[in-house]
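Give me the fold.
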Amino acid sequence: MRTALSNPVIESEEHRALRAAVAALAKRYGREYFTAVVAAGKHTDELWQDAAKAGYLGVNLPEEYGGGGAGITELALVLEELGAAGCPLLMLVVSPAICGTVIARFGTEEQKRSWLPGLADGSRKMAFGITEPDAGSNSHRITTTARRDGTDWILNGRKIFVSGVDIAEATLIVGRTEDARTGKLKPCLFIVPREAPGFGRSPVPMELAAPEKQFELTLDDVRLPAEALVGDEDAGLLQLFAGLNPERIMTAAFALGMGRYALARAVDYARTRQVWKEPIGAHQALAHPLAQCHVELELAALMMRKAALLYDAGDDMAAGEAANMAKYAAAEAAVHTVDQAVHTLGGNGLTQEYGLASLITAARVARIAPVSREMILNFISHQSLGLPKSY
């Protein structure tokens, strides 16, 4: 006879308590606050500061530097719950998840002391620049280069689609240095202060309703001291992927939160909207698609948790596969759910009152960034299935 587990641990009590606490905070702000901030051209400073006071922004960073001592599992949970309330914080993906993780794992003691406490308490932000106009998803074609000049580094190049440069004190830039032994270029990470001479930024006009702006960066003979290099010059690729895996996990959390918000609005509408005798949610033509969206979101959430747990356990290789799968699944689920939510509301789905129309564009971001779904399928086909590369 099959017996049920007395305490199936899908999510711990601590995680459920964290979810509830974040959800309560987010509910005080909600979608109306978020859209008002966007309309005014401002930033979500009040929510950011309240989340910082509660210890949520740095929950993944080491305790000795002011963080919560937890992991990406917990930070992803925070972002998901904020998104489910309609007010996600994109800089959570960039500042503590990517930059904070890389510095915590590979930074010098001075870099850790200088940056981690501020990233943890929200008083400092750091952007992340990897994408280039002509390189796309191919990190091997990055043309931003760093050359030595005495003990200094000189950086030259361009970056695009860099979030939040205007509100970040520095940007973690992915450049390439020449290997003295082989002459080949290898990736390296540099902390570039916002006001560094030669470091220019210009906003990229976006059809996207978000408080975080996107920028194109130019680096024209930007001189940096030796201590601007993060980690070991010869381990740049390892360090880079230590930041990219959390980025994918957090993008999955971003998409899941968005999908949950859209689904909740659609279900509430379908439960109460009455055209004939019964609410429209009684009709299977609407009920079944919403049920399918719920299934897809739940499946994506499970893969995200697997990816986060693997990463926090230190299994970078397995985490890379799972993080890509989680990002793919969550993005597809979010796009499908937002589309179905808008369709459920009909004309109301396109009004500002219900706050769903802006998600049509936002949901597609998770399909495109930080890596397209096609590149994820390329990765899975040759890394997981052993099929030959097409590139």
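Residues 1-7 have pLDDT under 50 and may be disordered.
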